[in-house]
Amino acid sequence: MARKTKRAKLHLTNEQRIRLERLSKSRKAPLREVQRAKILLHYADEVPIAQIQRLVNVSRPTIYKCIDKALAAGIDAGLKDLYHRPFKPKIDEAAKAWVINLACTKPKDHGLAAEIWTLNELAKYTREHAPAAGHPCLSKAAKATIWRILSANEIRPHKIKYYLERRDPDFEQKMHEVLMVYQDVNLQNDNLSDGAGYPQVITVSVDEKPGVQAIDTVAPDLPPKSGCHKNVGRDYEYKRLGTVSILAALDLHTGEIIAQVHDRHRSREFIKLLKELDSHYPKEHTIRIVLDNHSSHIS
Q: Domain 171-298 class?
């Protein structure tokens, strides 16, 4: 028969028991916390230590340590390890600030042939130049060390995030004018009944996609064949036919798309699209076009 422990009993409140039971069944909590919650629950239910060892599958010293900490300072102390640092950090705050300042500059400012830093290059430059700057603790800085310093300050010089610079002082006014156009289109569409035709002012959105690769197959496609292959078969090889530009106009009332394909993207191709729009809609209607300020649109 197993000898009973001489340690004091662990008394749990209803809230503590519910918390430990929830933690012991958790699939996202750290494994050590799940195991310690099970240990405390079993010990509170006066389960022998030997049986707890078999149920939780941990060593006796682990069980004793968890129970002793819970008895001495509460269940929170039994669940988690107290933060401790065995020795003072070798990299001081001044050295970390030097690394952060370096990461906020560009490599080409230091004579390197690169546009942005990589962690490897940043660590290499740090090892070579930090001792001369008065930070010998960085003489053996590894990539992981640089990453930890930058991550703690939420700096990622090896990543690029694009932004849009506001250069037009009249942007707000122009934005409101464009939004008013789309609001007017919604009102027109709400007032149009089914089969009522076009409104008096027809709004069309125009844009283009230049540089589209035109390719062709070198072998005929194979149709699906029962019992053989269920998909359309196409040869992997192809031939290039250059690039083309797609110009398209979207009718914001009907969803109709009027598109043209050209070898080049100039004003004359844009004028061809405008002429097709003019011939497509009734003469008594006004065509309102929404487009950007591309050079082919304003030249």
A: alpha beta
